[in-house]
Amino acid sequence: MLCIRAFRGGCRGREAAHFLPRVTMLCIRAFRGGCRGREAAHFLPRLASTLAGGKNRFLSSKISVAVEELEPSSDSPNVDEIPLQQPISQSPVWSWNEWDPLEEVIVGRAEGATIPKFTVEVKANTYEKHWGFFTKCGGQQFPADHMRKAVAEIEEFCNILEHEGVRVRRPDPVNFSDVYTTPDFESPGLYAAMPRDILLVVGDEIIEAPMAWRSRFFEYRAYRRLIKEYFNQGAKWTTAPKPQMSDALYDQNYPMNSVEERHKLAAQGKFVTTEFEPCFDAADFIRAGCDVFAQRSQVTNFMGIEWMRRHLAPKGIRVHTIGFKDPNPMHIDATFNIIGPGIVLSNPDRPCYQIDMFKQAGWTVIHPPTPLIPDDHPLWMSSKWLSMNVLMLDPKRVIVEKEEHTTRKMFEKLGMECVPVSIRSANSLGGGYHCWTCDVRRRGNLESYFNNVDLE
């Protein structure tokens, strides 16, 4: 049995002792499946904070969760599987999935965006029709007229989010055209447009991804002011191991022109990034409570996924690698976007090899309609499938591209309210609404959506 004990004398401990009989004792019953008793374990610090309310905040730092007795039963997990201590402070960072009610979000900036140099990792992640653009313009800022439109669109996006009751935070403006040098390479930067690529929130923790493009090596600097603020207010802050990004991280002979050869290599789990050291973009992970799904991609290697798996295991989070019929995977959220408990958008052009696992768990798998974005619209670093890269405000409200009428109808048929916004010019930088944001806080608790289902 788990109980709350108050420490240190005077009337302080007596206040807690007086209150405890009124609630008797908080017991955690551990249920089968998913993260089992962890939801209840997470509730203890909140109760402790309540006990310490008002002027007695000192008490919150004197309460510990102690294991007095846990009688084994057929439906009880091993006590070692339950995290017995969680931070008592109320963290400003709190999000376990992609759909709980959104309260605070980071939205990226188009200002200072710089065209990356045409290096091997950039070539492997872009379309051949744009290679001349990168070859000619790499290191320069993106076209000014286009960027003015993108900046205006993102400002309006922020206004709409605030109107919907969401607090909006922004990274610092940075001139990414400045060239930096490390012992292994020299490069200008890229941008701070896509916080989803570099930041992953799991519970009360914000994780900085190491990235895989050399132009994104120092991108984290634009977010450090915000992250330090969250840390000072009680959030956990983790920076994944920073890669050297030497030539050994990239397959210099990776086939660039043959889609068929890429398909063969992708089926073998081989991409332009090698297994020289861990690397990953945060956008290759998508959250569903106790389960996080990741893809091996051009920017995320198996070592990076394994680092995340080991890092999140103590929280009771399971990281699963899934794959897609995609010769050029980069970021999972325009291929496989989880939009609610047991609901996933699955790109019909990039079928998931493990989709039966979701169907067996009772999930609803939805294939979104073909995107309507015109062929002549510049998408320098992404595909048209940004149409499914939506942002959930809550399980019944979704931010969706205003011009994607068929996608809007799809959501309406699901009983969801569409909040139409247009960021077509901003799409050109490689992201939709999910990419352009990182949800810092969502109102909800850790749950399992795969009870009694073997995901391995």
Q: What is this entry, summarized?
A:
The protein is α/β, with parallel strands linked by helices and 456 residues long.
Structural descriptors:
globular; alpha/beta
Can you give a write-up of this model?
- It is a single chain.
- The chain has twelve helices and 19 strands.
- It has 456 residues and is of the alpha/beta class.
- A hairpin with a 4-residue loop joins strand 5 and strand 6 (186-188).
- It is globular and about 50 Å long.
- Residues 1-89 have low confidence and may be disordered.
Runs in which pLDDT lies below 50 for 5 or more consecutive residues are: 1-89
What is the averaged pLDDT score?
84
For the record, give the distance between the C-alpha atoms at the N and C termini, rounded to a whole number. Answer: 31 Å
In terms of DSSP E residues, the strand content is 15-25%
Radius of gyration: 23 Å
Total DSSP helices:
12
What is the number of beta strands? 19
Main sheet: which strands, in order across? 4-3-19
Helix percent reads 10-25%
Largest sheet: 3 strands, mixed
**Helix vs. strand class:** alpha/beta
Molecular shape: globular
Question: Secondary-structure blueprint of this entry?
Answer:
Layout: E1 2-6, H1 10-23, H2 38-51, E2 63-67, E3 102-107, H3 120-123, H4 131-137, H5 144-163, E4 167-169, E5 179-181, E6 186-188, H6 195-198, E7 199-202, E8 205-208, H7 224-232, E9 236-239, H8 259-267, E10 285-288, E11 291-294, H9 302-312, E12 318-321, E13 336-340, E14 343-346, H10 355-360, E15 364-366, E16 391-394, E17 397-401, H11 405-413, E18 417-421, H12 424-427, E19 437-442
Parallel strand pairs: 3-4, 8-9, 11-12, 14-15, 17-18
Antiparallel strand pairs: 1-2, 3-19, 5-6, 7-8, 10-11, 13-14, 16-17
